[in-house]
Write a structure and sequence with these properties.
By secondary structure, the chain is α/β, with parallel strands linked by helices. Helix content is 25%, strand content 17%. It is built from 25 helices and 42 strands.
Length: 1052
């Protein structure tokens, strides 16, 4: 903005603005009728088809307010637009990212916003977006599976053409905010599908965050909106407050916009009282400002809807009020009304960063008064700076509250100030005072007249470095503290006051106190009953009380305490039962208490913090406690946020039964941590595998267990409800595991409903035992049992090699979703069991299984094949497959796999199985092959255009075939087999098999064949040598049937 013309205005014009600012209707709607507002709207709404908004002044302030005002003016004055496309551009770290074609580029964001307005975001986009967001969350932003590229490509090649087609004949308004990096206008048309505005009488309004972005982006003929008049900044401030109220209403979603406009107006005026024209105050924090808003009664006690369910169990006045205050403060920041820390302007050119800065510089709201006018009933909020006194009156806003001063702000007043030395005379006359701010003043003792302020809600002594005690300064009074009579006090801030002694009377009649900050005091202990009357205290802050060695037992009486911060003390333990009694505690911060050894009192034998079963604790921070060895927060069901640091001696950590959603990697990487328990932590859906350098020796995590489950002390056990938990278990983690850094032994169970899964497994085990007992007692029904129950429960025959659970085992049970997250984990797994899965199509798609030795697959009816590549499974020894209704092949006929370690292969009840492996598959170690109840199997080995007429099974010892009625031959080309170690062949129910394999090479002994007599009698032999390779061991003739019996019922 050009140099201000404000000071040149005639007095009557200046006074007219002052009068207008005392009219509530003017703040709400009256400003819209002013000449300045009308001229500004016309300036924003009319002009070239493309306009650039660079805000006000060098800081590009008020861009959001100007954009909103411009959109309203354009829609009102330039006719109807078919579409209004509003884009709030998300900031990026670099110009390259913003100007590229990626997921976060400005082009992409514009195209998506346009598509959303036009209803063109299709199902594919929504699916890709959901997948991207999931991957981004579960991998901590390290991996997205190329979904960002897929999204950008889909938007560019599918959605953008539809945008072009639709907007080519329709009038639209594009309003872009927060444009951080330059963008070529031609790119908006070409890459985003937004036709140049001249084509269809449309309009572009581009709001940038700097003049640089505008200068590098504008085209010839584009216009920039220039604000160079002070009255325009004034009306922008009015409008910004209006938009702030809308923002507050949208966040809190209670009451009305008008209600929040009034609240925001009061908060803004109070801030103007603090940051008046003459104030050169020490930086005020947002918490201090919100405290003063609350003490004035401006902020309502209201639960924000989004957090109502989580906080409804605790009635915390302080937390609710502060939530509302934070929303208001953020709205002021967003719309350039107030920025903390506040910086007063030295000249007119600087006074455009915020509305508060502008109004303070020009003295439009806060008015100067004399000391004699302090007691005027109309002077509500009064602030001092040096010899200057200012006040803000809201008689026009709340005429019923004009009882006298409600706030006296002496922040940073020097010892030359005329009021500091006369407080004893002034304060008794300010009986309605609610806020007294003496922060950062050179007072050496408290004025005794403070005790007269019976309506005082807030007393701030922050930063009063010369104040050595809280007693009275008057020699005519007793040594009792003037604080002893402040029965309405709600907020007491003595942060930075170096007092070394406290008396009991300081805490007298403090039943309304909700916030107490005694940070940086020099006390060594509190009076024993100090907290006895503070029944409403919610926040207790003791930061850097370096001499403090003991806390009083009366702390246990703080039943309403919700936030406790103890930092830099010498305390060793907390009073007995303090955490048992403070059941409303939500936030606990313990930092740099280097002597701390326990929370349970001096009787503790071990250096531990044990805070179990606390019902309302939400956040816990423990930093700099080098003596703590054991830490347990078990059963703190609302605990969501934790932070630990510099716990050099920590050995055991129990977070079972909490609600934490993220576990910081530095906790897990603690050098001495040996035991980590996370039972019943269902909210912990992701894990920082990619940031680990070690794991505790005992690591037990269970999403569902209540903590009653037994767990081993020798192996890591993880029971999770979804594979996404392992999405960050990528290549670097796999390399570390293979290098022996951690995770050398583990048991992992992945099941969506682990509790129900276990219950069903227990029932199946019971039924399994009953059926085995039935089998022993009623052997006549063996075939009935095998046929009827194989589809429900598979019982391995004693002849089958059982699955051996290795030191790295994974169970996958009843999964219905894609298993993307398990790829890395399964690459270091040595044994795996997959049961009742309905999502896997090809088993080898899950992982390369580079370390897999033992594998079991049951009831995975969607699975079509097992192995479809020749890269992994080289270490596989034992494969057990049962009840896969959809299985067509074990190994695809189009590849030749290398099963160099496979010793045992069991296939049972796979009714659609067509073949097992192709001819070229390498099986040098295969010892046993079991195929049972595979009714569609016609051949075991299938040719794959090979010219080799021999297949090698050098280690084969036994083959068992049962109920494979359509099996015609072992090899579809009747190739010869080399199997020098083959000893046994068990066959039942294979009535279509007419020829056994022709054997080649040296065979030390004949293959013993156990099968039906009628089947054996129908075999065809190529030669006597062929026949002499087999030695039939057939049942006795009277026990055999001449042919297969057709079973029509299980009853006989």
């Amino acid at each position: 903005m050009a140099s201000s013309s404000w000071e040149k205005w005639p007095d009557h014009v200046r006074d007219k603005w002052r009068d207008d600012l005392r009219d509530i209707d003017f703040w709400f709607n009256g400003y819209r009728k002013t000449k300045a507002y009308i001229e500004l709207v016309n300036q924003l709404a009319w002009g070239h088809y493309a306009r650039w908004n660079v805000g006000v002044g060098p800081m590009a302030s008020f861009t959001r307010a100007m954009s909103g005002m411009a959109v309203e003016g354009i829609l009102e004055h330039r006719g109807e637009f078919k579409h209004v496309i509003k884009v709030d551009v998300k900031p990026t770290a670099t110009a390259k990212e913003a100007q590229g074609r990626g997921f976060m580029s400005t082009k992409y964001q514009l195209a998506v916003a346009a598509a959303k307005e036009l209803g063109l975001l299709d199902q594919k986009y929504n699916r890709l977006k959901e997948e991207h967001d999931q991957l981004h969350y579960y991998t901590y932003g390290c991996y997205d599976g190329n979904t960002s590229e897929y999204l950008a490509s889909h938007v560019r090649y599918t959605i953008v053409p539809q945008i072009i087609k639709q907007l080519a004949v329709e009038r639209y308004l594009l309003a872009v905010e927060n444009l951080q990096w330059p963008i070529e206008p031609g790119s908006i048309a070409r890459d985003c599908g937004l036709p140049f505005p001249e084509w269809a009488n449309s309009f572009w309004l581009m709001s940038t965050t700097s003049h640089y972005s505008y200068n590098k982006s504008k085209s010839e003929g584009d216009e920039v909106i220039s604000i160079d008049k002070d009255e325009q900044v004034v009306v922008l401030t009015f409008y910004a407050l209006h938009r702030s109220a809308e923002h507050i209403f949208s966040m809190i979603r209670q009451e009305t916009k008008e209600y929040w406009h009034r609240i925001a107006l009061q908060c803004f005026h109070y801030a103007m009282a603090i940051f008046a024209k003459h104030s050169q105050v020490v930086a005020m924090t947002s918490d201090e400002l919100i405290h003063q808003w609350a003490a004035q009664g401006i902020l309502p006690h209201m639960v924000i809807k989004e957090e109502e369910e989580e906080t409804s169990t605790i009635s915390s006045k302080c937390s609710y009020v502060h939530q509302v205050g934070r929303v208001i403060h953020k709205a002021f920041q967003k719309y350039s009304l107030l920025q903390l820390p506040f910086s007063p302007a030295n000249d007119a050119n600087e006074a455009t960063s915020t509305g508060a800065q502008f109004l303070a510089y020009h003295g439009l709201i806060a008015e100067g008064i004399t000391v004699d006018e302090l007691f005027d009933d109309k002077k509500k909020w009064i602030s001092f700076s040096s010899d200057h006194v200012c006040h803000v009156s809201q008689e026009w806003l709340s005429p019923e509250e004009t009882k006298g001063a409600a706030a006296l702000i002496l922040r940073s007043c020097s010892d030359q100030s005329p009021i500091l030395s006369k407080l004893d005379n002034f304060l008794p006359k300010l009986c309605f005072l609610r806020v007294l701010d003496l922060s950062y003043t050179p007072i050496k003792a408290l004025s005794s007249s403070i005790g007269c302020l019976r309506n005082l809600r807030l007393l701030s002594l922050r930063g009063c470095l010369d104040l050595k005690n809280l007693s009275s300064s008057s020699p005519n009074t007793t040594s009792s503290s003037p604080l002893s009579t402040l029965c309405q006090l709600e907020i007491l801030d003595t942060n930075g006051v170096p007092f070394s002694h406290l008396t009991e009377d300081v805490a007298n009649k403090k039943s309304n106190l909700i916030h107490l900050d005694m940070s940086y005091s020099e006390i060594t202990s509190f009076p024993l009953t100090f907290f006895r009357d503070m029944t409403s205290l919610e926040d207790l802050i003791l930061v850097n009380c370096s001499n403090l060695v003991e806390l009083p037992t009366s702390m246990a009486l703080l039943y309403g305490l919700t936030s406790l911060e103890v930092t830099g003390t010498q305390i060793k333990y907390f009073p007995h039962k303090v955490f048992e009694e403070t059941q409303n505690l939500q936030s606990l911060k313990l930092i740099d208490n280097k002597e701390l050894i326990s929370l349970t009192g001096p009787i503790s034998r071990v250096h531990e913090i044990k805070l179990e079963g606390h019902p309302n604790l939400i956040s816990f921070l423990l930093i700099g406690a080098p003596r703590i060895r054991h830490l347990s927060l078990r059963g703190c069901i609302k605990l969501e946020s934790i932070k630990f640091k510099n716990l050099d001696a920590l050995e055991e950590l129990d977070l079972s039964g909490t609600s934490i959603a993220d576990l910081p990697a530095d906790i897990i990487n603690s050098t001495r941590l040996r035991r980590l328990l996370l039972l019943g932590v269902s909210s912990l859906r992701r894990f920082p595998w990619h940031r680990l350098v070690q794991l505790p020796d005992v690591f037990y995590l269970d999403h569902c267990s209540e903590g009653n489950t037994n767990h081993s002390n020798q192996v890591t056990q993880l029971c999770v409800t979804g594979p996404m938990f392992f999405l960050s278990f990528r290549d670097t983690v796999v390399d570390l595991v293979r290098a022996g850094r951690f995770f050398q032994s583990f048991y992992v169970q992945v099941a969506p409903y682990i509790t129900n899964s276990r219950r069903q497994e227990d029932e199946e085990d019971m039924l399994d035992c009953k059926l085995q007992e039935l089998l022993q007692n009623q052997s006549t029904y063996l075939d009935v049992y095998s046929s009827r129950f194989a589809k429900e429960i598979a019982i391995s025959s004693p002849i089958t090699v059982p699955l051996h659970r290795t030191e790295r085992h994974v169970d996958i049970t009843r999964m219905q979703e894609i298993h993307d997250g398990l790829y890395g984990l399964l690459n270091v797994t040595k044994s795996a069991s997959v049961i009742c899965d309905t999502s896997i199509w090809i088993f080898s798609f899950l992982s390369s299984f580079m370390e897999l030795e033992e594998c079991e697959l049951r009831w995975c009816h969607k699975m079509k094949g097992i192995v479809f590549d020749n890269q992994g499974s080289k270490k596989l020894r034992n494969m057990h497959i049962c009840n896969l209704n959809g299985l067509v092949w074990f190994c695809s006929e189009y590849i030749s796999c290398d099963f160099r370690g496979l010793e045992h292969l069991h296939l049972e009840d796979c009714p659609r199985l067509e073949h097992v492996v192709p001819h070229g598959t390498s099986l040098p170690c295969l010892k046993t092959l079991d195929i049972l109840f595979c009714y569609n199997l016609k051949t075991i080995f299938i040719s794959n255009d090979t010219h080799d007429e021999t297949y090698q099974l050098p280690s084969l010892q036994r083959i068992r075939l049962q109920e494979v009625p359509l099996l015609l031959h072992f090899h579809d080309k009747d190739a010869t087999m080399t199997a020098p170690m083959w000893k046994e062949l068990h066959i039942r129910g294979c009535w279509s098999l007419r020829c056994l394999p022709r054997l080649q090479g040296c065979h030390p002994e004949m293959v013993k064949v156990n099968g039906e007599r009628s089947w054996w009698s129908k075999l065809q032999w190529g030669s006597a040598v062929h026949r002499d390779n087999y030695d039939p061991k057939l049942p006795l003739e009277f026990a055999s049937f001449d042919q297969s019996a057709e079973m029509s019922s299980y009853l006989r």
